[in-house]
Amino acid sequence: MIKYLGSKRRLVERIVDRVESCAGVRSVLDLFSGTSRVGHALKARGLRVHANDHNAYAHVLGRCYVGVDARRWREPAAKLIAELDRVRGRAGWFTETYCERSRFLQPANGARVDAIRTRIARLALEPELEAVALTSLMEAADRVDSTVGLQMAYLKSWAARSHQPLRLRLPELLDGEGSASCMDAGEAAGAFEADLAYLDPPYNQHSYLGNYHVWESLVRWDRPEVYGVAMKREDVRTRPSAFNRRGQHAAALRDVLDRLRVRYLVVSFSDEGFLALDEVREMLAGRGRVREVAVIQPRHIGHKIGIHDLRGRKVGTPGPAHNREHLFVVELGPLSVRRAARRAPVGPGAARPSAGKSSRSPRALKFAT
């Protein structure tokens, strides 16, 4: 999977263990799915997962790793990836923007991205195959990029891996059904029902769209207006998330919690967030019985590099080398579940519970792709 700030790579087994500690859980709603690392791990354990994220690149990853049933798509996907890997490079907008005007990838690899992405668009693939192809291309580009894992900037000198040729691989598809959506978290919380919801919301001012704008442009293939040295998409400025704003974060999280129709919550939150941990505990305790564990984590790669000014000179002193990730497990009382169900509007275009299934039943899982 792609390099990702906030990835739960080190925590995924702990998260899965806590989900499995909740009695009777068969379906999970992952509201801030990101790379879908957690959703993929839960699906591998036999759970039915719905992955949601409001960024297009994350929606593609969710559809690939959670929504695609390998029993149906593994063979055609393997053939497609082999075909796309034979496509010769041809430079275009992507190469000019991210390899010449900036230095995220070597121009030869950028030309391959241009040509393969153009080929994917022209094939008019079924959504499942398109998601697999785009995921394979994103991950191939990620393996040869020249960053520290964020697209806020690129390295002054080419990374050693950037000289390697771009090669496609078949993503690790899993057997079983799942689904994905690209919605605001509040809308998705009200639109889908599950036994358990996993929440890993952004907790500070750093926008995932800004951090991974290159992948957003690769997936949308919309040739957006860009700005700054990093060639960020213009909508990084105009499409902010309430979760990245200190004054709006608490209200946005409460709104999501009020809309959810689940029996259990598993919430991941850092001690470096906008909200103090006592605020998070109080918010969750109002909805049911809370269990909690803290895990010490090394901070992101930027801490190791240090703080630099615009001329590349090291300035200032980084903060602590570690933070604590807190995992909360909440068992909602029956009254909380009923109240949340009454408050939860179904988002535009979202599937409603099918006829014959009660919208209050925690077993009734109705997911839309």
Give a quick rundown of the structure.
The chain is an alpha/beta fold and 369 residues long. It is built from 15 helices and nine strands. Helix content is 40%, strand content 13%.
Mind explaining what this structure looks like?
With 369 residues, the chain is of the alpha/beta class. It folds into 2 domains: 219 residues, Rossmann fold, CATH 3.40.50.150; 140 residues, no CATH class. It is built from 15 helices and 9 strands. The chain has a 7-stranded mixed beta sheet, with helices on both faces. Strands 5-6 form a two-stranded antiparallel sheet.
List the helices and strands and how they pair.
Blueprint: H1 12-20, E1 27-30, H2 37-44, E2 48-52, H3 56-67, H4 70-84, H5 93-100, H6 107-123, H7 127-143, E3 179-181, H8 185-191, E4 196-199, H9 208-211, H10 213-220, E5 226-227, E6 232-233, H11 235-238, H12 246-259, E7 264-270, H13 277-285, E8 288-298, H14 301-305, E9 322-332, H15 334-343
Parallel strand pairs: 1-2, 1-4, 2-3, 4-7
Antiparallel strand pairs: 5-6, 7-9, 8-9
Helix pairs in contact: 1-2, 3-7, 3-10, 4-7, 5-6, 6-7, 8-12
